[in-house]
Amino acid sequence: MKAFSSKKLEKLKKTISYLQYPEQFKSEIHYNYIVLDEKYLNLGDYVLVFDNPDHENYKYRQNSIQFQDVLRDFDKCFDVDTSFESPDDELMKMAFFNVFNRLKEPSALAQFQEIERDFQSNSKKRQKQFIMNEQGTQVRIKPDETRQMGMGGFLKYNPMSNNWERTGERVSDVATLFRVFLLYKLANHAGFFIRQFLSLDGTKIYAVLFQELRNLIIEAQRTYLKKRVSIAFCDILSLEPVDEAFRPLRFNKIIRSKLFGSDITYETLQKEIRRLLKIIDYNKLARECNQNPFEISGEIQQQRKLSANILNAYLFYLEQIAIQVTKIRKKYKENDCTKILSSQEIKELVADLKEQSFKQKSTKQYVRDQSKGNWKDTNKRKIKVYLKRKKALEIEQILMNAKHQTDKLYGKRLFSMWDRLGMEPQGPYIEYFYPRKKQNYNKFIQQDSIWTYQIINEKGERSLFNKMERAKLNISIIKQLVNLEYLSSQDYIRDHLIPNSYFDLDGQKYKDDHYQPLKQAKQLKQDLFFSMKLIQTVKAKIQKFIEKDDPLKNEKKKLDVDGGLNGDNLLNLWGLLEVPVQHICSYYGERIALYFMFLQFFVQELLPISYFGILTFIVQLLYDVDALANKVSIIFFTIMIVFWSSTFQALWIRQEMQFQTMFGLEDVELNQVELIGFVGKPKRSIANDKLNDLQYSSKESWLKFFFNMILVAIFLLIEIVIIVSLQLLSLSLEKNPDIPQVEFIELSVFIPALIWVFIGILLDNIYRPVAFFLTKWENHKYLSQFETSFIIKNLLFSTVNRLGQPFIIAFFYERTIGCVNDNYCYSQLQIYMRVVFIIEFGKHILFGFVLPIIKQIYQRARYGLVSIVDFGDSLQKKTPYFYFNKTIEAETQKESFTIDQVDGTIWEYLELNLQFALLANFGSPFPLIFITGLAMNYLELFLDKFKLIWLTKRPTPQTARSIGPFVYYMNLISYISIFINSGLLSYSNQDVFADINSFTLFVILMISFFLFKFITDIIYGNTDSSAEMVRQRHKTIQRKLHVAMSKKNQNTMFLPFPIAKIYGTLLPHQLKKQE
Fold this sequence. Notes:
Blueprint: H1 6-20, H2 22-28, E1 46-51, E2 63-66, H3 67-78, H4 89-101, E3 113-114, E4 129-132, E5 138-141, E6 146-148, E7 155-158, E8 163-166, H5 174-190, E9 193-198, E10 204-210, H6 213-222, E11 226-228, E12 241-242, H7 253-256, H8 267-280, H9 282-288, H10 308-334, H11 337-340, H12 343-357, H13 375-410, E13 415-416, H14 417-421, E14 429-431, H15 441-448, E15 454-455, E16 462-463, H16 467-481, H17 484-489, E17 495-497, H18 502-506, H19 512-520, H20 522-527, H21 532-541, H22 553-562, H23 570-573, H24 581-588, H25 590-622, H26 628-662, E18 681-683, E19 693-695, H27 698-735, H28 747-777, H29 783-811, H30 820-823, H31 825-863, E20 869-870, H32 882-892, H33 904-922, H34 929-951, H35 965-988, H36 998-1020, H37 1025-1041, H38 1068-1074
Parallel strand pairs: 2-3
Antiparallel strand pairs: 1-10, 1-17, 2-6, 4-5, 7-8, 9-10, 9-20, 11-14, 12-13, 15-16, 18-19
Keywords: Membrane, Transmembrane, Transmembrane helix
Transmembrane segments: 592-622, 634-653, 705-729, 749-767, 831-854, 916-939, 960-980, 992-1012
GO molecular function: chloride channel activity
């Protein structure tokens, strides 16, 4: 073993002391660079939930664990494959095992059972482990050394005060050691702010994590995070009205040229429009937003004349812009910050300048002007650039408001380029980069200001990263250091989640009862590193730009009363029919947004076919079953169903392309998530030359997959046997004279159909765990492979479950065992589809709405009045963080959106695709099935929104470009529907086509439908023209901004991480590099 130097031994001693007595670590880390204000005391970025190992109900209180198992746990949890390594890793590992060696041994009097691990090896070779203690001597640890899992006495319940208290003892059990080491590593190596508290019952310990912006910036570069460029800084002129050829209206000849003939009547309008265009000066407007104006060369050809209505609307539009632009130009020309900036923006600017002014000298290289080196002048330019950014954003808002007011007064007369394309205005997504430090300061600030910022709280504070981006970056940072999934699987962590932000959801602000206790608490004052005197010094440096008086107090009061910011929050925008995809994506991530986009698309596509279904049903009510009009309406409706199903998938692919363009996902490589239970042999990776990459034989995986398909076939055979048995039951009930006759629903069909629905639910609940086990047995390495195999098994089984019974009724019973209603199987099929969808609708309401509401009421009754005590130095009084803690604990009581690493959207997609299969193939026998499905999906929009926000934990944001295998399933169903609907038309309506043989008619219809499907695929193709044009425009903008991949700093992967240690301090080796 390599000997440690004296400095390392001293550091090892200090680390061991921190792990044994973590309160020493807590007292040291508070006094550094960051001013702790209210934004650091919120619900946090991430929450870890641990079991309290000193509680009497602790799961492993009577268990012990061997050293060899702890060593395996440590290696799997903390020796993560990462792109950066800290020099403290080896030292921290040595400190961990030193502390482990000093934990409590199982008492001889108490009966401690050795804990069992799934990965335990039966190997007889157990090598001894040697570690270095703080004195520099080697210590031997035997592999079968055992220590207590819990009950180490770190915490103790005091029945007199009814509180949990620290005993002052050192860490003495394995569970506490893992928790302390995990939090120490996250704080020391990733710069997380960490706060802990206990639940009222004392069974859980919560750790709230918050990450600093500078670390997030470094991680965004390392992971090539794509961020949207604000349209105000890259494409402001795309918001002006254009004609059908996408040319700005101000270039139209009726405005620019001399009028002749009948155009003389427009002379007054022309003069007024020209006057307003001169006031606005679009070229100047573009330069004010750091963009180049249009360059017109030659005459614009083939222009259409503008009507009087359009010119009047355009005149009103320009009047609105001219008034507002004149005001802001005058305001910014005076350069008076107190009239331009709100009180919150002034505070942000002061805080930003203060942080830059008092950074260590070595870190000023990021923002210092290399030529002059005058920090005072740099501050002045910083303010000017800040004002220029705000001016560009105000111009963007003026253009959008003028368009909105014109549409409100004149109707939809004016169209911007985005209106013509049918898309929302959007800047391009480019990979985030931090401007190179060796460049002019003005260029540095301009490049750093192009990104879209988001308001994050009721005070109007803006953040570079929205909630979804923060979550992705924090998860990426944590995964570089810790394997949380493995920790959860071994019960070191009970849960980990991203807390909801109720300001982003419904504009809800934290009331005074949240922050008032914090303001009164003494520890908050002690946490402030900068004194008020120091802050006043910073304000004095920009005295000529910022006055002390705040003229916008009324605006601030109004903001506090309103609670939200202009109603621009998720719940206000998310109505029953309105699905704000961009807002959902910015909060929940692309995968959730894509699901709701698909659900909305499904609803929209059901509308037209539902109208035809209602008309067909009316005809069936007016005419007898054998009437020609009834038969013709069914034939027409069946043809419409085939057309609908054939275009459904093609239209959705176009929607996916628009989604990819909207969020910059065209060429994004999805990260492969490795499954915890994967077992493979270490081999060299061909992709990255990793020598010990775990791999598994693809032949064995395929053999297991085919074996599983045999088991699936057995399940399908059982289903078919049950289906035939139920048909025999239907025939016997029809012959039974004691069964009463019901006009709309025949009991001989209703009773077996009802039985089949419940059997189907039972089989689904039995099969899905089996399918999950079989898929896990296939030993997939990546989550995407696992999900694909799991989806295939479920789709195959559930398709037979839903479509098997109507298919057999339609095509097999008539020639075998017979059907009800005098062997008229189409009539039985009509009754069956009627019954099944009525039952499905009731089941949907019961399981999708009633039961979740009852469960939520029960949970609120059980957990709604919890009281929480602080896990801090003083446990005798209520913590000032009480309301925040209560909110966090309520979040952890919700159900998980992801079950066994299977995302919750998979089940939703499965149900919707099965519904599509049923509608596309057997919608014609019961025309109201489409309006019923429409009602179900409308209800589903509301229920899924309700469950996502209020009943489940916030899901981890995931990137998704498409709905995966479900696209191919819909395409397959559209082809199958051609066969089935052709068969229904040819064999169930023989009297209408008496002159044509049934088989000949079947072939003719099938060829015709296939030809239509082929033509549809050619017309729609796999591309969307609007999305493609926007992509090309975004590429052009990227070149103009000079931020393409080739222009970026290529040393991104070698940036020091983290830039901050605990609360902003730099690591020693980073200081040496910068000096």
